[in-house]
Amino acid sequence: MGKKIHCLTYLLLIIPPFLLTSYFFAAFPNRPESIQVSPSLASLPKQAKSWSVYPEDFYGVGGYARFPYGKVKYWMLGPEDGKKIVLIHGLSIPALIWKDVAPGLAARGYRVLLYDLYGRGYSDAPQTTYDTTLYVTQLALLMQHIKWEKAHVFGVSMGGALTAAFTANFPELVEDRVVVVASAGLIKTSDLSRTTKVMSSPLVQTLTSSWLARKFIQRLTDSANETSDKPVDPIQEIVRLQSAHLSGYNAAISSSLRDGPVRGEEDSFKSDVWKGRRLLIIHGTKDNTVPYKYAAQIQSLVNASGCDAQLVTIEGAGHDLTVSHPDEIVQNMTKFLSDS
Ligand SMILES: *[C@@H]1O[C@H](CO)[C@@H](O)[C@H](O)[C@H]1NC(C)=O
Ligand SMILES: *[C@@H]1O[C@H](CO)[C@@H](O)[C@H](O)[C@H]1NC(C)=O
Ligand SMILES: *[C@@H]1O[C@H](CO)[C@@H](O)[C@H](O)[C@H]1NC(C)=O
What we know:
Blueprint (H helix, E strand, L loop, with lengths): L1 H26 L9 E2 L11 H4 L9 E5 L2 E8 L6 E5 L12 H7 L3 E5 L9 E2 L5 H14 L6 E5 L1 H12 L7 E5 L12 H6 L2 H7 L2 H17 L6 H12 L3 H11 L6 H5 L7 E7 L8 H12 L3 E7 L6 H4 L1 H13 L2
Parallel strand pairs: 4-5, 4-7, 7-8, 8-9, 9-10
Antiparallel strand pairs: 1-6, 2-3, 3-5
Helix pairs in contact: 3-14, 4-5, 7-10, 8-9
């Protein structure tokens, strides 16, 4: 009898830890595999057209930073002792979108940091969710890599939304004056075009990421090239080339549309980190991608947090205003930074 009780006590002691251990082995059968990373434009053969449209040394030699989610390409322009500015590009076009604005700022004495977001241009494409956290962490790591403690941050389109999110998440890394150009972040789903909605669906994301889909896009791209005598627009061309030749690009775009800072960034613009800062909002009246009305919405959100927000309207400019109106943009940016 005594022995039986002893045995039972023993069992009761041993069973719960045993069950727990089996549960954990069942729940976590293996250590998860490390994240897969798809290569960037740097992996394409040197005769590929991307090397003439957007060569790796487009802004000078630059460098690569190695982070856990893959390599990140960056360049620095302008005098080393100039005021520091980070330029963030948008959804589909890499740092090439700043081709006229960046040299303009550098020529006026600013030190400019340009980089490609994950999944675009010369930065690797981790197979992960392209959400705000991924993007803001990428820039914080990059600033740490180049030993910048603080900088002015300027962003265009999705990069504008990212600028707001970066300021809200890492206010100590951001100077008091910030610029957003044709900024996304508040787009309502009803304003997204049908193409955009289709692109962001998980099914299309899977399909366009496949080898077959890329072969198809490559053929379209190549035949378009053969039949036209017009000089190619480098901006449109780089979008087609990435889509056709980079296995991670289409997934990065779709995930960014669905999970990224394109919409739902109200809280970043409302954050109290804006108190005491100044924001310059530049927007074109003919913007069909991020309608002009969003500029005023951004202005009133940050104003409510005690930020002095100024809106510069560029009459007749579309969403590509950094390419169509670079001089006005550079002049407005430098005036904003030097105003007392
Ligand atoms: C595309 O155009 C370029 C420049 O005109 C030419 O060198 C290249 O061979 C063309 N590629 C194809 C696939 O037609
Ligand atoms: C935001 O504040 C600025 C300056 O304080 C003012 O000129 C502007 O009208 C305000 N805008 C909104 C939308 O409240
Ligand atoms: C800023 O842009 C506006 C609109 O295009 C233009 O009228 C103005 O002259 C620019 N300001 C400066 C300082 O260049």
